[in-house]
Design brief:
2 copies of one chain form a homodimer.
Chain A lengths: L9 H6 L22 H10 L1 E5 L4 E3 L7 E7 L2 E6 L5 E7 L4 E2 L10 E4 L3 E7 H10 L1 H27 L2 H15 L9 E2 L4 H8 L3 H13 L3 E5 L2 E4 L2 H8 L3
Antiparallel strand pairs in A: 1-8, 2-7, 3-6, 3-8, 4-5, 4-7, 9-11, 10-11
Helix pairs in contact in A: 3-4, 5-8, 6-7
Chain A binds a DNA duplex through α7.
Chain lengths: 245, 245
DNA sequence: CGTATTATTGACCACTCTCAAAAAACGTGG
DNA sequence: CCACGTTTTTTGAGAGTGGTCAATAATACG
């Protein structure tokens, strides 16, 4: 499960200890550097640090005081919240170019954990906030990102509150396919998360997720070449299922 | 159902057609004017318009091109999304001081509708964005508001995906009580929304909401003096239920 | 390979939904 | 102000989707 998100070579980052990078970052147009002038990107580069993490490692926990913001260079990450008895809700799966760690004064609202080996850009919150004055574009960019995340959260609320199991799984696959489109070469969609993660993302059990996946496969809508990969065979039908039509 | 949110007098706004107000707006510390200098508040006042609406009136619809942002002066509002077959998810109930209408380039992500008679401050998006340059505080404020809404959305995802019917209703009551605390005089919490609205907010049916309410009442945790009002009798037990403990 | 973990499949069950009816609240007009 | 019809809420009986518990199969890993 180490090479599920292939487009970025972890070695690339390991070789340049700090400060470098970002110049040849393929993600320029994805990450929140998007649309910044070269000199402003340099200002960002000046304050960020690079972090490498193995899979299944906590990046920060819900309630921790929020010292950093993160952008994913390679690998994937999950965000989740827990109830006291262990029930878990995964609030998002993140991929290269995605941003996370924005918080209220009461600390991070969720736990962040690597799914695969990840390479992260880490921005000290204080320093980033100080940069707002020099690069006001930055704040605009963060607002846009946050609004876009809020919109996604609303979609997920509709999914969790009102969709059937089959519609939930279909929505998950459609969303995953879309969000990882530019990161793939082949037709197979990587599933870096476990069935348990998918279940906790959709408000279902692993058994139900497994049963629905099997049905979709039997109906010829998807293929499951191996655990860890998925093939969208009938995108239209899947999209129609996802919208509950 | 016309006077359920009593602390603000609709007449007050009717008498001053445009432009005035805001100076004696009790909500200064709630709304996004919070912490602005007097002259900056004036700049805001200069671009905003006042809107009065009767209950059960659409303010804007999902997908509409987003021309305005809104702040509630008095009354309450619901936000919701629909599936093609009519299934509905209410994503939020809003009260005086709350802000809504932030959107991505693809338009509003949800429909907004008045629950009671409402008095709104309406900000033209273009003009507000132009003000960012003069009043950078504004953008910071909007970012804070959006992050805070995103945090709330994550809480709601946990509720929708992982809480039982009883825990959902308890969470709803606790949240409503907290969010309307400074707007009440008496001990009774106003319920400006219908059972159907509550059901669509919690991902339940009206029957289940009604049954759970009846149970909570029989257990002496809440009181239901009349439809439209609710009394929290055992706040600790309710809060414990809400957290699933 | 052998062991541990994860995913699938099966049988059964329960929480919540559906359908239906009664009760209460609301609005309207006489 | 009350009678009436309408809408909303409550209550009840029964059903179904998805959950629980358990066993098997597949996969990962040392």
């Amino acid at each position: 499960m180490g090479s599920l998100m292939p487009p970025f070579d972890p070695l690339q980052d390991k070789e340049k200890p700090e400060g470098l990078g970002c110049a040849h970052c393929d993600l320029a147009e994805l990450a929140f550097c998007a649309g910044l002038k070269h000199e402003d990107v340099s200002r960002l580069t000046a304050i960020l640090g690079h972090v490498q993490l193995p899979p299944h490692t906590s990046i920060f926990r819900e309630g921790d005081s929020a010292q950093h913001l993160y952008s994913i260079a390679s690998g994937s990450v999950k965000l989740y919240k827990l109830l006291s008895d262990g029930r878990r809700q995964i609030t998002g799966f993140l991929f290269p170019g995605n941003f996370f760690g924005l918080s209220t004064p009461s600390g991070y609202a969720y736990t962040a954990e690597s799914l695969t080996p990840v390479s992260l850009c880490r921005f000290p919150r204080r320093k980033l906030e100080a940069l707002y004055q020099t690069v006001p574009q930055l704040e605009k960019r963060l607002l846009d990102i946050t609004i876009s995340e809020l919109t996604g959260a609303h979609d997920q609320m509709l999914l969790l509150g009102r969709k059937t199991a089959k519609e939930k799984v279909a929505s998950f696959i459609v969303g995953l396919e879309r969000r990882t489109r530019r990161l793939r070469q082949g037709p197979a969609v990587a599933l870096p998360m476990s069935r348990s993660d998918i279940a906790d993302y959709l408000g279902l059990t692993i058994e139900t997720v497994s049963r629905v996946m099997t049905n979709l496969k039997k109906e010829g809508i998807i293929g499951l070449p191996d655990a860890g990969h998925l093939l969208v065979k009938d995108h239209d039908t899947l999209a129609r299922l996802a919208e509950g039509a």
